[in-house]
Every structure is written in C-alpha cells, then in structure tokens.
C-alpha cells in the first residue's frame, strides 16, 4: 500500500473515532421559530458539487426561520459566488484548504469562527468528521451534529440532512417545514440568464434545442475518449436538428477531439447561466453536473463508480444513468425522454 495513503487511512479512522463521541446539543426548548436568528452550517469542504448540494438545506432554513441569518463554514472555495443571491446567507467563513501551508490564516479564521455566537449550528453531512468537529466546538446554543443511526430510506446527500434536522427541530419545540425539500438552485438573476443566453446564441446561431455535453472529470470517473466519441456520434445521428456544444474545463481538454462547438468560462456563475440556456445537460457525476442541476437545466448524470442514489442530479426533469448497466442506444432513449418530455413514445 502507498505509505501516504496508509497514513491518511489511519488518520481518518482515528478522527472518525474521536468525532463519533460528539452528540447533538439540546438546550432549552424553543418557544417560537423566530427565536432562531443566527445559524451556522458546517461543511468544511472546497469541492464545487459538495457546496452546491448545500442549497436545499439553506432553502429549508430560509423557509423555517425566515428572519434568520446564515453563516457557511467551508474550506477556501467559490462559496461566496455560489450563494451571493441568497439574502439570508450572511457570511462565508472560509478556512484554508491546507492548514499546514497557511497556519496564520487558519488561526485567524478559527478565532473569527469561535468569536461568533449562534442560536443553531448544523453539521451538513453526518459522515463528515470535520463537520462534526466544527459543529461541536462552535459557540452555539443548539447543535445538530447529525444522527448516525437515522432512517436509511433517504439516501440523497442533499435531502438526508433535511429530514434528520426536521426530527431534531421537532424535539426542541420548533415547528419544522413539511414540504418536499427544495431542489438545488443557484438563483441566477435575470441579467445573468440573458447574458448566458447571448453567449450560447453566439455559438449556435439558431433557435433549435441545444444539448450541452461535459466530457471531463477526474480520477476513476473518467470515461475513455472512444466511449465519448461513440456517444457523440449517436447523439448527432439521433438528433440531427439539435445543437450539441461541449463544455470544456480550464485545462482545455476535449474527449471528443473538439468536434463540437466549445463552451467555456472561468466564471462559475457565467458557466451556469450558459448551461441554463441549453435544453439538456449530459455529464459525468461531477461538480459541473451539480452546477447544471443548480441552473435548473434537465440533467442526465452519468455514473459508473459513485453512489447513484446519494449523488444523482437533484432538480426537476433530471435523471441518473448507470453506464455499467445501460448501452448507448438505451442512453439515447433517455436523452430523448428528457429532451422531449411531452412526446408520446408509446405509439
């Protein structure tokens, strides 16, 4: 075994054992939902997808505590841009991704974090050891670390915490929300959407439906160039009157050999606005896939190694497809159903 990987595994197990002793903190019961005015969400992570998956929880808290202000504790990331249109989000407390490389900044951020008082602190993901730790040491009257023995029926990471939190809030006298949890939502403004639409039109130069295709991801989620080229050729054949554009990463890598017009932006909200002006997004389980969901675009998430039920795209009209179980022709049928949801395919 790789020595570094072995050490990280030991550290992870030790940390998990330590944080496993942390429990929810319940003080006096709450007489009115308006008693909860300052809320902290702990998700010390920097990945785009994980931060976007917080948006249903933020919306849940907005609905339950409309007069509250919410702080987000994350690792250094684009969280400020992601939640800039959420009026209830007050501050983003961003810890350095690597504390050993930025010890002074880490200490300053920690002091700032500990100096703030909250009515409620929430660990956004029950399996997160660091989230449990920060929630437990926060200066909060009520602390929801998470219920590790919670009902396993709800497995999606964005909804799981909401249902568990509702039970916790009921136990302390809060009247919880009982609606279906909200979808991911970046809350793109009208001017952002108009700008994104103009950029897409500059590429396609017509009013036909458009498929946005994201072929890039990392590590074991990668599919071969041969697989992507096969999918691209099938899409062109099945949808001759539909535009296909490829979303390129900052590395300017294409798995289809730059055969399709390219869409690219280093501005995360601009990229989302462009995706919002396409009709279907197809991409591997990744941060960009969740960005597409957050832009409210029907999203087809391609899965092969990660847990589909836990990370599937979460917005109306979206589906997850396990490519280990589905051939290209069946995937094309899925695309047709998402692209033309009102088309009667039984005739």
What is the CATH topology classification name of the largest domain?
Rossmann fold
Low-pLDDT sequence parts = 6-11
How many structural domains in the coordinates?
2
Which of globular, elongated, flat, extended, rod-shaped describes the shape? elongated
Give Rg in angstroms.
22 Å
Task: State the distance separating the first and last CA atoms.
Answer: 56 Å
Would you report the number of β strands?
11
- What's the CATH class of the largest domain, please? Alpha Beta
Oligomer: single chain
Structural class: alpha/beta
What's the CATH H-level superfamily name of the largest domain? Answer: Glycogen Phosphorylase B
Largest sheet: 6 strands, parallel
Secondary-structure element order, as H and E?
Answer: HEHHEHEHEHEHHEHEEHEHEHEH
* Fraction in helix: 25-40%
Tally of helical runs: 13
Q: Looking across the biggest beta sheet, what order are the strands in? A: 8-7-6-9-10-11
GO molecular function, one term: ADP-heptose-lipopolysaccharide heptosyltransferase activity
Protein name: Lipopolysaccharide heptosyltransferase family protein
Keywords: Glycosyltransferase, Transferase
């Amino acid at each position: 075994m790789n020595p570094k990987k072995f050490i990280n595994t030991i550290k992870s197990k030790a940390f998990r054992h330590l944080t496993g002793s942390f429990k929810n903190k319940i003080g006096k019961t709450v007489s009115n939902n308006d008693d909860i005015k300052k809320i902290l969400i702990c998700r010390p992570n920097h990945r785009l997808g994980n931060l976007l998956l917080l948006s249903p929880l933020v919306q849940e808290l907005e609905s339950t505590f409309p007069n509250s202000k919410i702080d987000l504790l994350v690792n250094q990331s684009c969280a400020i841009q992601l939640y800039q249109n959420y009026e209830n989000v007050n501050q983003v407390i961003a810890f350095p991704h690597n504390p050993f490389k930025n010890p002074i900044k880490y200490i300053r951020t920690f002091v700032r974090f500990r100096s703030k008082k909250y009515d409620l602190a929430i660990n956004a993901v029950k399996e997160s050891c660091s989230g449990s730790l920060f929630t437990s040491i926060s200066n909060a009257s009520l602390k929801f670390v998470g219920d590790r023995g919670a009902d396993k029926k709800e497995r999606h990471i964005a909804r799981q915490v909401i249902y568990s939190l509702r039970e916790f809030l009921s136990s302390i006298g809060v009247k919880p929300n009982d609606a279906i949890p909200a979808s991911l939502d970046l809350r793109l403004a009208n001017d952002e959407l108009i700008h994104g639409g103009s950029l897409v039109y500059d590429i396609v130069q017509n009013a036909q439906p458009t498929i946005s295709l994201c072929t890039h991801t990392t590590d074991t989620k990668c599919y071969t160039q041969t697989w992507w080229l096969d999918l691209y050729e099938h899409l062109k054949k099945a949808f001759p009157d539909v535009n296909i554009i490829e979303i390129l990463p900052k590395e300017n890598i294409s798995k289809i050999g730059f055969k399709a017009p390219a869409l690219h932006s280093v501005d995360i909200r601009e990229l989302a606005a462009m995706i919002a002006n396409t009709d279907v997004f197809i991409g591997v389980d990744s941060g960009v896939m969740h960005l597409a969901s957050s832009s409210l675009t029907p999203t087809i998430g391609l899965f092969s190694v990660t847990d589909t039920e836990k990370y599937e795209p979460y917005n109306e009209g979206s589906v997850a497809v396990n490519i280990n179980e589905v051939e290209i022709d069946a995937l094309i049928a899925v695309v047709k159903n998402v692209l033309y949801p009102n088309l009667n395919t039984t005739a």
